[in-house]
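Reopening: Fimbrial protein still failing for me.
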Amino acid sequence: MLKKTKPGTLCISTLTTVIALCILFCSQPAQAAIECRFNSGKGGSTTLVNGSYKEIRLPTPTSGQSHMIAQFDTKLTPTITGDCSAGNDGEDLWAKTSPNITGQGLYNFASFLTNIPGIEYQVRINTTTGSGNMFAQNTQDFQIISYNDGYEDNWDEKTFKATIYVYLKESFNGNPQKLTYLKPQAGLLGWASLGVPSDSNNQPYAFYVTEDTFSIPLVLPTCSVMALGDGGTNVAMGDYFISDLKNGNTTKDVPFNIDVSDCTSVAKFTTKMTTLKTTGSGADLLGNTLNTNAATGIGVKILYNKTTQLIPNNANSNYVVSDNTIPGSKTFNFIARMERDGNPLVVGQFKATAVFNMTYD
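Support: Ran it again with your exact input. Result attached.
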């Protein structure tokens, strides 16, 4: 028979049994779905700002490798904050990359161009507590870059920032323009949203960079050490007889070399020569600087590549060597040759002084 019991319970029993089958009708409230969004969910645009980093000395790239040379955070303006409440559009971070200023990509993520070819950077959209991920290489459709189903605390009431990772890629070929700052190319990085971006309450934000988003000071191309190959400062020309120089005869060639080392970001070396005293009809020889017991009628010609003269005090005469391997050191070979300058030959001592000025690009 049926008996009344407390609400929510139905018991069935008989007079001849002591066993009762009771069915308890009860229910628990279902957990409400949660969705997250940027700010109000209406979308908009924001710009990366206030990125800074210490001075960088660009290293020599390693063949076949890319390596990170800087990492720092930037703020977003206007500010973006996560907001989570009841809804069905999820808690994942979605993004789509703009192709406008993208580079070749790195480690399956998008990379973006700077003002120096071969130096690119990646951008990670994340909260100040670290949740987030980088822009991926998808440029056609939105995709999830950070799965967060059930973890709304990663976003809710958290402020977002952008972390920059700067990489020197194997295509880097120096800084020939002698740029003093590394800056991003201005443009649109891409779009990102919390929750499905197609929903009207989860609209994406566009993320932009300007040339002022970050400005990293650079050490210009240079070599710290420049010296004669033997470590000294003199090139010994040896002894000569007047007969060696008469009748237009030239004398022996004296090879010497100049070494530069501890070079950074140098792809081109340009050498010029100056002197306080010249001789010869074209003032193209190094003259004797001695005043006592001085030899006359001779001067020193400086040659490079065995046959090309480097003329002193001549702005148009220079020895240029390009080396796209961006060497850390380099040796330059010269020849010193004693020649007649057109004046009468007089026996004596001879000393000439030259200054070799090298510029780097």
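The radius of gyration is 38 Å. If you still see a failure, please send the error message rather than a screenshot.
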